[in-house]
Design brief:
The protein is α/β, with parallel strands linked by helices. Helices cover about 45% and strands about 20% of the residues.
């Protein structure tokens, strides 16, 4: 055999063997710690739920998941970090439904909420409860609205930044009820609760798991829930719709996303592990008694929900802008 032909054959065989060799050398996922970026402050409802579920997922995977709080710019700072991360399953986004609000409020985002992410799973729905100081004079939502209409801009309410879940819940209710009030932004839910208890802020559409202990202790007053139906943990508290305000309901979520182009098998594995985490007794004991129901959507269903939410939030943002003119 000619030397040149021998060299050519050797090169071809080496090229054919390279993919198989690379595959044999590749380590199965996950082979190193996973980083989960959480674009909110520590102690928020999103932070508490995400850490609870991801701790269990970490135990199941046998690999640590390090949660990093990267708050800022209405959750977009941390979200942008994940959008630009390698799609290898080692950088994830643990976020809330603020994810589908941001595109409607920030026109110059450096990422696309649909194109740059692969939804994995919803950890839980996150109902909000309208709470007020315990000594507030109002006995019903109708009384609050009547006062607010008679005194435009007199009442104020908690937000956790423009576009946060609690902000959008409050604004959806305010627009449905037709009154003016002043938003007051806080870095975290703990600060908002403190101000409500102290009586310095009038109301807060607070996540149920954050507000429930204070409601039960009588430190705050619960007047309504933002969900379409009453919550099992607060059966005597009416919905805002029951209170007489159609189209005032809203339900946030906490969930997990990965960068777009993350291998489908990794997304599927993560989804499977999140679903398995919900069967853990410790996880269920901390979710269910606090009015938090585990998510059930598949990744494709989660993606469809996000797309629909962006449409709804775009309409709400336009209504807010029109109202402010």
């Amino acid at each position: 055999m000619r030397p040149r032909l021998t060299i050519v054959i050797a090169l071809v065989l080496a090229a054919l063997a390279a993919p198989a060799q690379a595959q044999s050398n590749a380590q199965p996922w996950p082979s190193k710690p996973i980083r989960a970026i959480l674009p909110f402050g520590a102690g928020s409802a999103t932070d508490v739920v995400a850490r609870l579920v991801l701790d269990q997922v970490s135990a199941q995977l046998g690999q640590s998941i390090v949660v990093e709080n990267r708050a800022g710019a209405g959750s977009t700072t941390g979200t942008a970090l994940v959008a630009k991360a390698p799609p290898d399953g080692y950088t994830l986004l643990a976020t809330s439904s603020a994810f589908s609000v941001a595109p409607t409020l920030y026109p110059n985002l450096t990422y696309d909420a649909i194109r740059d992410f692969a939804p994995v799973a919803i950890f839980t729905s996150l109902p909000n409860v309208m709470i007020m100081p315990a000594n507030a004079p109002y006995k019903s939502v109708a009384e609050v609205v009547a006062f607010a209409k008679a005194n435009p801009g007199k009442l104020n309410f908690v937000t956790l930044g423009m576009g946060s879940g609690v902000h959008m819940a409050a604004e959806r209710f305010r627009l449905a009820a037709g009154f003016d009030a002043v938003p007051v932004a806080f870095k975290g839910g703990a600060e908002g609760i403190t101000e409500i208890i102290a009586g310095r802020i009038d109301y807060y559409f607070c996540p149920v798991n954050t507000s429930l202990p204070f409601i039960r202790d009588g430190k705050v007053k619960a007047l309504a829930v933002s969900t379409p139906k009453r919550l099992a943990v607060l059966p005597d508290v009416p919905t805002t719709i029951e209170a007489g305000f159609p189209e005032s309901d809203s339900t946030a979520w906490v969930g997990l996303l990965a960068p777009a182009k993350t291998p489908k098998e990794i997304v599927a594995r993560l989804h499977k592990e999140v679903m398995a985490a919900f069967a853990n007794e410790n996880v269920r004991a901390k979710l269910l008694p606090n009015g938090l129901n585990p998510g059930t959507l598949r990744p494709d269903e989660f993606a469809a929900q996000i797309a629909e939410e962006i449409k709804i939030n775009t309409a709400l943002a336009k209504a807010l802008m029109h109202k402010s003119k």
